[in-house]
Write a structure and sequence with these properties.
By secondary structure, this protein is of the alpha+beta class. The chain has two domains: 4-137, N-terminal domain of MutM-like DNA repair proteins, CATH 3.20.190.10; 149-225 and 244-273, Helicase, Ruva Protein, domain 3. It contains seven helices and eleven strands. The two termini are 27 Å apart.
Length: 279
């Protein structure tokens, strides 16, 4: 599913493509993706609104509309936000995309759509209070300068859960999912199954640096695509070729050559690690 680098890429592209454009009409094709408002409310509250800003919070893309309305898109496994011709013919026309869930027509003749093959993602319409409530439920952003090595160590030392599970808990740290938890722990040479409280201060510094480095490196490559993820211009991310752990179970460790182990033992998610390097 799209994690921080992928949603950051989506948000940056939408900021470039959509800001200062106005919404002329909305078509809700698949209302089951909606949260916080009915299809009729989404249409009523979006029409005529200018898009002021697009940004990211955790794994959600936030589209700010004038008047204090916010569209929150959480793509999850197969969702994407596509702009203009990249999304194909309009809904209801011959050859239209059957996976378009919501379509926003823009006053200048363009459009953007939320497309989701499995419809596991969500589109939430929120006012300022609802956005604040969502924000309070999410932990700090790992690329924020306020998220220091000391703050990460503080989160880890009070938990007996596996360190990988703590990293993926959105209440603790925002935006990190399975791909980048695997990658950061490999870079920091830390066993993903270790109780978080056993991570030393020195190891916490190494893990913080690994998190920041891998997230920034993936953003530079526009994220990781294995199958479904696309940016708003319908382009795949390029970071998959640089992954050292995730997706490489059974292959050689790029650091020591040992065979990478793969397990689902940590909360049912695929974990890939080096039994020799990661302690």
């Amino acid at each position: 599913m799209p994690e921080l680098p992928e949603t950051e890429t989506i948000a940056r592209e939408l900021q470039r493509l959509l800001v200062d454009r106005s919404i002329a009409s909305v078509t809700v094709v698949r209302p089951d993706v909606l949260r916080g408002a009915s299809a009729a409310e989404v249409v009523l509250r979006c029409i005529g609104k200018r898009i002021e800003r697009v940004w990211r919070r955790a794994k959600s893309v936030v589209i700010d509309l004038e008047g204090g309305e916010h569209i929150l898109v959480q793509p999850r496994f197969t969702g994407s936000v596509l702009v203009d011709a990249s999304a194909g013919p309009r809904h209801g026309t011959q050859g239209s995309d059957p996976y378009v869930a919501v379509e926003w027509e823009l006053a200048d003749g363009g459009r953007f759509v939320y497309r989701d093959v499995r419809r596991l993602g969500t589109v939430t319409l929120a006012d300022g209070d609802a956005l604040d409530e969502y924000d309070r439920r999410i932990g700090p952003e790992p690329l924020d300068p306020a998220f220091t090595p000391e703050r990460l160590s503080g989160l880890l030392r009070v938990s007996s859960q596996a360190v990988k599970k703590v990293l993926m808990d959105q209440r603790q740290v925002a935006g990190i999912g399975n791909i980048y938890a695997n990658e950061a722990l490999w870079r920091a040479s830390i066993d993903p199954s270790r109780p978080a409280r056993t991570v030393t201060v020195e190891e916490g510094r190494a893990l913080h640096a690994a998190l920041v480095d891998v997230l920034q490196a993936s953003i530079a490559e526009r994220g990781t695509t294995f199958r479904d993820y696309r940016d708003p211009d319908n382009r795949p991310g390029g970071y998959a070729a640089r992954l050292a752990a995730y997706g490489r179970g059974g292959g050689p460790c790029l650091r020591c050559g040992a065979r990478l182990a793969e397990t689902d033992a940590i909360d049912g998610r695929t974990t890939v690690f080096c039994y020799r390097c990661q302690r």
